[in-house]
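Q: Convert this sequence to structure tokens.
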Amino acid sequence: MEQFLAVAEAGSFSAAARRLNIGQPSISKAVAQLEAYLGVKLFLRSTRSLTLTEAGRRYREGAERALAAAAEAEASAREDGGRLAGPLRVVVPTCLARLYLLPWLPGFRDLYPEITIDLETTDHDTDVVASGADIALRIGPLADSALVASRMGRTRMALVARKPLAGLDAPHRFMGRPAIVSRIHHVKNSWIFREGSARIAIMVRPALIVDSDEAARAAALADLGHAMLPRPFVVDLIEEGALVELLPENMIDDIDVWAVLPAGRDQTARVRAFLEWLRQQLGTLFAEGQQREGK
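A:
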């Protein structure tokens, strides 16, 4: 089964042999024996290509599930013996992963060297159940009530630009200015500001529309307009002087950061350990928001 999956993933017997560090004849023989046992062809072979048959595609899906279940069973057995091991699938916003989680992960690996992190980075709300994720981090309101959610902290937004904007001393003065609009945090072309205890929506003129915080950050650096992003995603550039922070007193400051988990699925010791470790790491990052919430 493992040799079949290696061929299916690599696209050729020779590439699979190199990946598994065994001879190509051994892999070819193993796949041929599997086909004979099943009574079906799993691959369509030609001199130039190797593709899965319909039966091969179905077998691959089942084989991947079987191996994942076996790995989970082995990991659970180790956990019963006091060792945390096995796969942990985590979905994280791109900027949060690049700026913070990836630099932090060596510390987690030092604590739990036998846990394998399967990391997906995306700025969109992945279907946690369908993707097989154990944990997903999300910023802002949660749309799916079928998930188990644990708040990890609270942050604020930041309005940034490559250089200062003369006369910008109130949100309404931003109306009509060129903006980098992210589909992630904004509804159409409206940005939300705070004035005292009230919230106001200001229509902006999109100079660029992007679908990721990473793109919005890069566009602001390229002086394509003003961007509004979670402050942790641009604080390094603000401190370096690469970006200027505008109207900080008018920024929304109660943006929740969540860890969401599939409902009805038992939390493994790996999941609990990762959540506890992550909560400690995020504590410093979101301390400002947490203190404000407690007032």
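Confidence is low (pLDDT under 50) at residues 288-295.
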